[in-house]
């Protein structure tokens, strides 16, 4: 991994997985550009992690994404790695309209699916161009084990992440039509986390635990430090051709990765489609 990643942009780096990734890549001596909605968190990170660069933007503001990305690419023309990680999660009951409102659902879809789709469109040509010229580039996109194993507590989150995991696979399929140099140098990696102990579910964790029979019976989250260690352990396991793994699944994420590879991926391969 170390020789493949030099300058990495992390979308959504002010909390949770994104912040953990930013801290670990920084500790490995990589040039890290962290983005997020909260300027106070970005400033605190930059003060703590010397040499860390930051950019403030809110991915749910779809109209500003192009300008934000273009500004980053202008300042970092040799940016070789991007992680799209930001997301939100709401819990509501589709049979009880009082538990949600249309604007909240629209915002969740925009943040978890529409914004990642637009960001892929904006960053993919840059990474592709560098790869064609001989530079190793890497595109990481975070989905979720819930993209494969949906749970009733998170209707929009599960649906949106299912869309993103499809997007990752289609991006890889389209890369298969590219010149050999680009295919050889560009790694497209789906990050598939399990339930990790971050702030993603703070607003509804108690409610969801109660729906499962209480905290003693509820499925427990993986500690963030444990997840981060396992993620970076897998990240170092390169394929024989020197590329990164197509998926980095941990815990339940690894189970759904292996299940998909052993089933639908084989169907696609029989059709001659890269998966």
Automatic annotation (TrEMBL):
It holds the Pfam family adh_short. GO terms for molecular function: oxidoreductase activity. PROSITE patterns: ADH_SHORT. SUPFAM superfamilies: NAD(P)-binding Rossmann-fold domains (SSF51735). The keyword Oxidoreductase applies. Gene3D superfamilies: NAD(P)-binding Rossmann-like Domain. Keywords: NADP, Oxidoreductase. One of its GO terms (cellular component) is membrane. Coiled coil: none annotated. InterPro entries: NAD(P)-bd_dom_sf (IPR036291), Sc_DH/Rdtase_CS (IPR020904), SDR_fam (IPR002347). The keyword Methyltransferase does not apply. Belongs to the short-chain dehydrogenases/reductases (SDR) family. Putative oxidoreductase. This is Short-chain dehydrogenase/reductase. It comes from Daldinia eschscholtzii.
């Amino acid at each position: 991994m170390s020789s493949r990643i030099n300058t990495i942009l992390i979308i959504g780096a002010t909390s949770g997985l994104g912040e953990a990734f930013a801290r670990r890549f920084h500790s490995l001596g990589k040039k890290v550009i962290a983005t997020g909605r909260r300027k106070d968190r970005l400033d605190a990170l930059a003060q703590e992690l010397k040499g860390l660069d930051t950019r403030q933007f809110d991915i749910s503001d779809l109209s500003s994404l192009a300008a934000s990305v273009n500004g980053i690419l202008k300042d970092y023309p040799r940016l070789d790695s991007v992680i799209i990680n930001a997301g939100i999660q709401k819990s509501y009951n589709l049979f009880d309209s009082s538990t949600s409102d249309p604007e909240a659902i629209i915002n969740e879809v925009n943040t978890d699916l529409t914004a990642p789709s637009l960001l892929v469109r904006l960053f993919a040509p840059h990474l592709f161009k560098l790869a064609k010229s001989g530079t190793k580039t890497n595109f990481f996109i975070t989905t979720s084990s819930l993209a494969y194993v949906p749970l009733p507590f998170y209707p929009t989150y599960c649906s949106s992440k299912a869309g993103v995991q499809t997007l990752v696979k289609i991006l890889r399929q389209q890369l298969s039509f590219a010149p050999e140099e680009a295919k050889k140098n560009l790694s497209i990696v789906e990050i598939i986390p399990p339930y990790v102990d971050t702030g993603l579910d703070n607003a509804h964790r108690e409610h969801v635990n109660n729906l499962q029979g209480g905290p003693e019976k509820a499925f427990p989250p993986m500690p963030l430090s444990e997840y981060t260690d396992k993620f970076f352990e897998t990240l170092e396991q390169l394929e024989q051709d020197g590329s990164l793994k197509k998926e980095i699944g941990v815990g339940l994420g690894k189970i759904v990765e292996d299940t998909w590879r052993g089933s639908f991926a084989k169907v696609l391969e029989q059709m001659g489609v890269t998966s």
